[in-house]
Specification:
alpha+beta, five-stranded antiparallel β-sheet, 7 strands, 50% helix, 20% strand
Length: 186
């Protein structure tokens, strides 16, 4: 019981020290956080992207009709009203910026401007109208703030451990280490 209480107390102390020296510092040090991002932003890159309209359907006839309407520069609403008739949804449209390899894009999608060919998959058929090709580039901080915060906390922790090692000499008591290993094995 005493060992469990001691372990709990040590865990709380470690949590408190980590909170003070790493987690809260990362949250409140906005200047340091921004400087960290600027120094490592080349790690956070977009792949090539497309600004596009995706049309999906379970039937090939509906997707071919949608492709013709996309080529004729019909709006999303016009495509929906023409193809989703009699209360039946024949096509689903999505638009936005999609990164190469995005799960919404067909697997073998050719990233070219204009209206694509019809892509067949186990889920149905897809056609894509690419409005703009967006080249690979650095992700802005607001798009990846959580990931950068996590990496910044890891960086702070590494620096803090280095400072502790420089300040305090680590000594390993071999007899105690052997005793602990023996206790863990049994």
């Amino acid at each position: 019981y005493a060992s469990t209480i001691d372990e709990y107390r040590n865990g709380l102390l470690i949590f408190d020290v980590m909170d003070k020296n790493i987690w809260m510092k990362a949250k409140t040090d906005t200047v340091g956080f921004q400087e960290y991002y600027e120094s490592v932003k080349e790690k956070y890159l977009w792949n090539d992207r497309v600004d596009a309209i995706l049309v999906k359907s379970s039937t090939e006839a509906a997707i071919i009709a949608a492709r013709v309407l996309l080529i004729d520069s019909k709006t999303n609403e016009e495509i929906k009203s023409d193809l989703n008739t009699e209360g039946k949804v024949n096509v689903i449209l999505s638009e936005g910026v999609f990164e190469k390899g995005d799960r919404f894009l067909p697997n073998d999608f050719d990233m070219l401007e204009g209206v694509s060919k019809v892509y067949a998959s186990k889920d149905g058929f897809t056609v894509v109208k690419v409005r703009e090709l967006i080249p690979a580039g650095i992700k802005p901080l607001d798009a990846i703030k959580g990931k950068v915060m996590s990496d910044y906390q890891s960086e702070l922790e590494s620096k803090w451990i280095e400072e502790l090692r420089a300040k305090y000499n680590v000594q390993i008591h071999k007899r105690t280490l052997k005793r602990v290993k023996k206790e863990l094995e049994s």
